[in-house]
Amino acid sequence: MESQTRTISVTGHASAPAVPDIATAQLSIETLAGTVEEAFARSGRTLDSLRDALHAAGVEPRDIATTDRSLRAERKWRDGHDDGLLGYVARGTVRVTLRSLPDAAGVLQSAIAAGGEQARLEGFSLEVSDPTSVRAQAREAAWRDAHSRASQLASAAGVTLGNVLRIDEGAAGGGLPPIAFARVASAPQADGAIQAGEQEIQVSLSVSWSVD
User: Fold this and answer.
1) Which of 1, 102, 159, 190 has the most Cβ atoms closer than 10 angstroms to its Cβ?
2) Residue 176 above 60 pLDDT?
3) For the CA atoms of 166, 171, 175, 176, what is the dihedral angle to 10 degrees?
4) Which of 17, 12, 191, 175 is nearest to 106 (CA)?
5) How much is the pTM?
C-alpha cells in the first residue's frame, strides 16, 4: 500500500504599485423627437458632432467605439396616469480611450460641448495600459510570501520542504485574474485636471510543497 504524500499548501499575496497612463470614458447622448425616424436622425447627428470633436482633438479612430444605440417610447404621466405618447428617445453611447492624461480633461470638455445639452459623461476610469512588468513584480513578491509562509509552517511542524507540487495564480483574495485597484478617485477634478494617482496590481499564488 502506497503511503500518502504529505504536503504543505499556502497562499502568498503581494501587490506592486503602478501609475495609470491612459483613461477610458463613456460618453452618451439622448434625443427626444416625435417620431422614431427623427429621434434616430437627431441622435445620429449629435453622435457625429461628438465624434468629430474627438477626432479634432487628436483621438484616433481606433480609440473611439460606439457601444450602444437604443430607442424607447417616452410617455406623459399625470397624477400617476398615462396621458399619452410624448415622443421617442434615442440613446447612443461612445467609449473613448484617451492616451494622453494631461489632455484628457480638455478633450472630454470639447466633446461634451459639441454634443450639446444631450451629451453626458457617464463613466470615467484610469488604467495601466501594459501592467505586464508590474504584475511580474507582484508575482515574484507573492512567491516569496508563499515560500516564507510554507517555511514557517514546516519549521513549526518539524519537517522539511520538498518539491513544489502545484502552483495556482489568481487575484489576491479570490480566483479572478489579477486586477488593479485604484488608491485615489479617478474622475476629472473640478479644476479640469486629472490626477492619475497610483494603483495596486495584486496577485496571489497558491502553492503546494511535498514535505520530508
Assistant:
1) 159
2) no
3) -130
4) 191
5) 0.69
